[in-house]
Amino acid sequence: MKKTLRRLSQLVVLSVVVAGGLVGTSTAAQAATVGTPSITYSGVNNPPTADKPQSKLWWNDGSWWANMWTTGSGWSIYRLDRGTAAWVDTGVRTDSRGTTSSDTLWDGTHLYIASNYVTTGSSVTAQARLYRYSYSAGTYTLDVGFPAVISGSSSETLTIAQDSTGKIWATWTQTTATTSTVYVNHSLPGGTGWGTPFVVPAADPNPTPDDLSAIIAFKGDEIGVMWTDQATGTAYWATHKDGEDPVAASSWQVKEAITGNKMVNDHLNIKSLQADPAGRVFAVVKTALDEGLHDPNAAQLVLVVFKPGTGSFEQTVITRAADCVSRPQIMLDTANNLIRAFHTAPSTSVSGCAFSGVAGSIYEKTASMDNPVFENGRGTVVIEDEASANMNDVTSTKQSVNAATGLVVMASDHVAKRYWFSDRSLGTPPPDPTEPAASFSVTPTSGTAPLTVAFTDTSTGGPTSWAWDFGDGETATAQNPSHTYTAAGTYTATLTATNEAGSTSSTTTITVSPAETTPPAPSINGPADTLAAGPDGLLWNYPANGEGGFLSRVRIGSGWNGLKDGFVTDWNQDGVFDLIAQWKDGRMSYYQGKTTGGFLAAQTIGTGWGSYQVTVGRWRKSDTYPGVVAYDAAGTLWHYPNTTGKTFGSRIRIGGGWKGLYLTMADYNRDSAQDILAKRSDGSLVLYRSTGLGTFQPGQYPVVGGGWNSTNSITTLEGYQGAGTYGLMARLTDGRLAYYPIHNGTWGTRTIEGGGWGAYKIFR
After folding, report:
1. Count of CB atoms within 10 A of residue 309's CB?
2. Are 585 and 562 within 8 A, CB to CB?
3. pLDDT digits (tens, 9 = 90+) for 184-196
4. Residue 324, beta-bridge partner list
5. Using H for helix, E for strand and C for coil, what is the string for 402-414?
6. What is the pLDDT of residues 373-423, one digit of tens each?
7. How many CA atoms lie within 13 A of 314 on its CB side?
8. ω into 444 cis (within 30 of 0)
9. Is the pTM of this model over 0.85?
10. Which residues are CB-neighbours of 19 under 8 A, at least 6 positions away?
């Protein structure tokens, strides 16, 4: 309703202008044309440079680019030809819908364009889409699998950001007649695999229908969401650490960025310096202090600076009510250490100010990033048409600008239906950098394992980052690291030195001789061994002899009381078997196996697992590490991928209806895809054959055995009866062990392997 009333008031003001000019005390000047006119447009519902939180431009490969509306075709990628001062259509079409608005993001490798279906009233069902483009030699190409769907709802605006893991995040508000809700969603790394949108976990995620949200990446490893709530006069700031649970309330920290009577309107724009060690975030918020108070000195635009080091906000007035400005954007100029604030205000040909929000011209004000104090007044005109005082909706880029990029902002005259832009220099660009020449020295170059080697960077050409590959699978990024080679061999160590111009590499050879004594072996010999924890908490390994039997058992641990289930796997894929423990109190722990025997101290990798039925293995062929497949108390089956060799990524739903089944992950038909063997309460064993892609093969799920209700533990073993053999070791209810060979989807002859196992927790 507020926007409707505002537009009605604009019509009234326009009638006053026709009758005799805007009422005011200032004297009008003769307007001048400032900036450059560009293409005309038609067929798009909203001003094509709107909306306030969004960015339509980006800098890449020495050029400015923009997502612009092409009459008769739709949204298209344009390049600014600075020699002719013209925006050139590349012919790459993005979204054809004239009802949409966009937010663009260039990450150095890919271009992302989020396109939302615009409604200013109640939200309707309509897709918000993400387009991803690859770039090469001046050409953008839409990647396979795009556009992806961010949400199924319309919104007034939608913005995106990319976190340090490569995930794309989005925020928007979904609106009803009386309220709105701040939503967030994120993709998998690269913009694919969007999840279910969720409400930002905050005490007040329901601002007025007239409010907006915006999102930003900052500090190198955090995402921040800011939204206005005019009902409380507050702009809220919610932050989330990359890699943490996205929907858990405990993963979000919520603060009030600015609060007070009429301290916010629905005009918001936010920027950050990714290279800023302090991680500062700069936001411009429009207040509503001009509505009914008639105080010309009241703050109209406020700069809010968030400083993560202190967790505090600082506020600075950019303009006051007498300046009559609206629709702000800020840009960060690293060449001159300036905050550049752009906004709409009446044209220089207009006297006075009937209300803030009237179209006119685009103005700029600046202040130091370190001490942001803005001079009084509207600022300097950067875009104005002497023939049409209808300029509005300034936009630019999320990126910082500098002497190399210059400064480009764009606006639109939605009465004349024409784009305008301003292109200015920010100083003389520094000389083109040259790539560094990588070189290094090592001390010593040979010796007996374990051999500790000191690496000293001697590169020239000003490298800013260093990537070391020691040749044994280990890496480092310090400038002068040291590394210990634990095994004999000849290793090629490589240093890649990088700066903004590129990178070069250098190598050397290090020779490590065998140690005088052979170090102890890992506690678990291989995938044929059987592990069991006794009622006294002692952990034993029963090594396989490779002929269908066991060698003498070896004690490998203690303190295993309270175990619900245990699993043997190479969790971090370092060639040494590790242990995963599911405890009765709901914890899940990871015990990294040591090459010298024993395990490192337990690392808790999850809680709340007490009601889950768990099996462990590489569920998808493409997974680097084994993960967990488990169903919860409701019987919903989930895949918890192990994304780092240590911790879980976001879980993925597989299906429902699994409650009461005993699950074992096994490659039943030996096609390198892990299947699920499910034991039912009636003793039947059902095969759920996997595609190896995280789903099951279509069709019926065959019963591959009966009588399995006489077992209460099932473990997969490889090599138990010799190289290349595969099967299940099951404990019978009478405490005996039985081995069931599997021959490419058929059972071999069962053998009994001994008794007395009833009191043990057998690892799976």
Report:
1. 10
2. yes
3. 999 999 999 999 9
4. none
5. CCCCCEEEEEEEC
6. 999 999 999 999 999 999 999 999 999 999 999 999 999 999 999 999 999
7. 14
8. yes
9. no
10. none
